[in-house]
Each structure stands twice: as structure tokens, then as C-alpha cells.
């Protein structure tokens, strides 16, 4: 069950943070980057690829008196194309680029190893051979695209989690918040006494982003457990305002965190209901029983992650037969 809040839309304060929106072709139809004012302007995320993204970046910066070459620092939350799109142009214009160190390792992965991992995993979740081939091609295309948009050799600072770094005049604390993407970083920054969180896709008011994590690859079953770890890491912190990758800027940090956790709980409950107590079935069959589409694979990845979480909790059990993992309810 989705939750909504009666609230007045919160706009970023003009003297500190400017929101730049880019068009995307799926709900909620926009993705946001944020420009932090200062003598060394800092951009969080880089919008979508292509000429539309280029035009929207230039127009968004111009609305606040900036050009691409004025951006001194670019912080990347995670390697999805709607957040990386204009990174090459921003880097070419002279910005210092920051990204999670594990992301750089992931982008350096060999295509042969990725293909082997995806092929093994796609078969194990019950996809037919033609869909296995399609998912391998999807994963390879994604890796190649992300390398074009964020070449590891073009990243100036590969940061680690557990500390802070300085970007211009801003002290930035990256928080490891996996689940939607395995290396996802949310950035905590204090500006003018306000505690801000640039949450990327881990914390969005209108919805919970899918548990894509590593994709359809080895470790896909850990995605939901990783999401809960991200929420646990955010729990107990205090922020005055959150600037997400999708949806409106909001000041109801605790409420949105609680709603996000509830949405994850509800997805798990939906998966439990779809797992039979009798003959064990593959994750593809569980996803189908939930009434969800297999293509694109977001719902399948949610299901795989939920089944892994439920098995760790002792609520389902699995057996591995003929290269396919099948689950039944306990």
C-alpha cells in the first residue's frame, strides 16, 4: 500500500541548492540533479545521456546563472544511466569527478565474467534460454554504456565509505545505501546550518525504487537484505531536508524512511503469498504468480531479493535442481 502525505511542496533554497530536472521515459518522468552554490559549484548527479540531456543540463544551469564549464565538482550517487548521462561533458569541461570506489571496480569487470554470472543466474531463476540470452545482452549493453558515461580512468576521486571528503568548500559524507544499486551513495552535507541529504534513489517520497542491486547476476538474492541494511544505516540520523533523485524535495525524512521500509515489507508479504507450500517453484513462477511482468526485470529482481531474504529468515526453503533454484513456503 502506497502512502501519501499532505504537504506543501518544498523547493530547494535558491541561495544554497538548485534543482535541475531531466526528462525520462518512465514514471515519475523526471530525474533530478542538484547544484550546490559556492566559489566552486558542485553538481550531484548528471542527468540523462544524449542531446536532450545536454540541452536540459545547459538550460537548467543557465536558469541559475551557470554554464557547464562553471561546474567544479561532480558527485555521482550510483552508476545508472539516468544519473550519469552528462558526466562526460561535465568532466570534459574541467570538473573533478567523484564516485564510489566499488563502482570503479564494478566498471572494470571483464565482460566474460559478467556474461558468465548473468547466464548462470538467469538460468537459476527459471528463465527460458531465449530470455537468458536477452538478459546477457542487456547486462553487457548496460556495462558498456556505463563505461562510456563514467570511464573509471576519468574519475578523479574514488571515495570509500565510512569517512568524509572535501569537494570545494563542502565537506561531504557518503553513506553506503545499497539495495537499489549495490554501490549506491547518499551524500550528507551541511549548508548554512541545514543538514541536507542527497539521497539518489535510496529514499524517494512517492515510491520505493526497485531492488536492482547487482542486477540479474551472482548475489541477486541479497538485494532486499541489502536494502534493509541501507534503511538501518539511515535510521536514527537527522536531516532538515532531503534532495532525492526522483520526486519532490522533502523535509519529512523520518516519515519517508518509515514509509520506504513499509513498502519493502509489503513487497515481501506479497512474495510470501505467491510462494506455494507444496511443490517448489522458481522465482520466475513466483513473479508470475504475483501478477508482475518479467520484462523489464525489476519485479523479478524484487522477487529474487525477497526470496533470498525470506530464506535467510527461515520463512521459505529452497532446493537446487537441474541448475534452477526452486522455493516453497515453510
TrEMBL record:
It is an enzyme of class 3 (hydrolase). Transmembrane segments: none annotated. The keyword Hydrolase applies. Residues 30-246 form the Metallo-beta-lactamase domain. Gene3D superfamilies: Ribonuclease Z/Hydroxyacylglutathione hydrolase-like (3.60.15.10). It comes from Halomarina rubra. GO terms for molecular function: hydrolase activity. It comes from the Archaea. PANTHER family: METALLO-BETA-LACTAMASE DOMAIN-CONTAINING. This is MBL fold metallo-hydrolase. The keyword Hydrolase applies. Keywords: Hydrolase. Its EC number is 3.-.-.-.
Amino acid at each position: 500500500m502506497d502512502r501519501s502525505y499532505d504537504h506543501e511542496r518544498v523547493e530547494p533554497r535558491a541561495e544554497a541548492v538548485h534543482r535541475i530536472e531531466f526528462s525520462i521515459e518512465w514514471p515519475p518522468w523526471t530525474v533530478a540533479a542538484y547544484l550546490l552554490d559556492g566559489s566552486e559549484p558542485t553538481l550531484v548527479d548528471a542527468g540523462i545521456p544524449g542531446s536532450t540531456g545536454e540541452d536540459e543540463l545547459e538550460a537548467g544551469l543557465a536558469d541559475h546563472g551557470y554554464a557547464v564549464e562553471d561546474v567544479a565538482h561532480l558527485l555521482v550517487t550510483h552508476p545508472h544511466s539516468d544519473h550519469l548521462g552528462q558526466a562526460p561533458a561535465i568532466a570534459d569541461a574541467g570538473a573533478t569527478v567523484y564516485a564510489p570506489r566499488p563502482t570503479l571496480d564494478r566498471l572494470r569487470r571483464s565482460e566474460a565474467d559478467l556474461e558468465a554470472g548473468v547466464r548462470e543466474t538467469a538460468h537459476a531463476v527459471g528463465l527460458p534460454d531465449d530470455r537468458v540470452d536477452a538478459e546477457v545482452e542487456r547486462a553487457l549493453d548496460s556495462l558498456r554504456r556505463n563505461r562510456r558515461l563514467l570511464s573509471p580512468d576519468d574519475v578523479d576521486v574514488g571515495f570509500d565509505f565510512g569517512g568524509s571528503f572535501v569537494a570545494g568548500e563542502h565537506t561531504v559524507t557518503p553513506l553506503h545505501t545499497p539495495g537499489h544499486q549495490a554501490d549506491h551513495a547518499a551524500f550528507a552535507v551541511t549548508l548554512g546550518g541545514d543538514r541536507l541529504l542527497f539521497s539518489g534513489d535510496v529514499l524517494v517520497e512517492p515510491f520505493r525504487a526497485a531492488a536492482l542491486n547487482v542486477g540479474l547476476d551472482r548475489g541477486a538474492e541479497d538485494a532486499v537484505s541489502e536494502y534493509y541494511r541501507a534503511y538501518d544505516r539511515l535510521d536514527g540520523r537527522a536531516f532538515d531536508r532531503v534532495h532525492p533523485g526522483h520526486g519532490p524535495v522533502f523535509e519529512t525524512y523520518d516519515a519517508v524512511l518509515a514509509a520506504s521500509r513499509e513498502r519493502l515489507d509489503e513487497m515481501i508479504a506479497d512474495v510470501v503469498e505467491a510462494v506455494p507450500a507444496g511443490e517448489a517453484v522458481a522465482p520466475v513462477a513466483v513473479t508470475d504468480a504475483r501478477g508482475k511482468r518479467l520484462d523489464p526485470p525489476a519485479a523479478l529482481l524484487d522477487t529474487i531479493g525477497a526470496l533470498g531474504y525470506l530464506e535467510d529468515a527461515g520463512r521459505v526453503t529452497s532446493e537446487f535442481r537441474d541448475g534452477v533454484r526452486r522455493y516453497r513456503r515453510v
